[in-house]
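Recall from the previous lesson that a structure prediction takes nothing but the amino acid sequence as input. Here we apply that procedure to Porin from Vibrio breoganii. The sequence below is the only information supplied.
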Amino acid sequence: MKKTLLAAAIMTLASGSAFAATMTVKYEHKLLDGRTDRPKLELSHRMDNGLQLGFENAWQIERSETERERKAGYQPDQYEMTFKTDYQHRWGDRREWQLGTVLDFQLKEEAKNLRYGVYAGYRYTRDLQSKVRVRVSENIARMKDNSSCSEVSGDGVRGGCDSDTYNKELRVDHWLTYQWSDFTFVWDFIYLNKLVDEDVSVFDNNKSSAIENEFSAEYRLPNARAHSFYGKYKIKQELKKSSHKSENNGGYDWFGKRDNAIEVGYKYRF
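The prediction returns the following tokens.
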């Protein structure tokens, strides 16, 4: 099944008139002991009419010890595939304005999610630009049956529903991008909010909203412009659920600490 989906995605990208295409190989590493690593592969294909098609494969690798996994009931390593579509319109004397829509279909081991939203951007100068995207993520099964969630942890701390079945959330990104010589620097300010009525539907910080920040730097080879390398530092939420306490997760001391991560990657433009 996975091989069939991957082949279909590649065939889709190979068709049509390409304006720009990018392949990105990424590796995300969460810094706390016992958390996860996520290798990723992404392909995107922008056509000359503004339509972009793409997909991303991600594999989640648990770094906790096997005996602790059995005790705490960790999920096995997960695989995700996300099909991405994006339509962009640019205008202005310098084509400095952009407006677009996004529609993604995400396949996880136990869930299927739909992500949809809009974005707008403006290039202030040749080197400085900003972009804001508003996106909603919703589980397809819940869209059909309107199922609810009513879990509360035994110690009175809101534990949230871990299953993606109960997920419906808003994500707002504001990217500020600055280019200097062969370097590109990006600051991504992220606001997250749960769009459900249940009090127990919370993020890792045990709240219905969260703020995160990501900082990245990309270096494009001056004599081989198709190739570039980047690094990203992700400032994530504090882990405040009862499941993050050492007595509930097999001995890992996560509670109250930020789930920060680093990501490195390689991009090839063709």
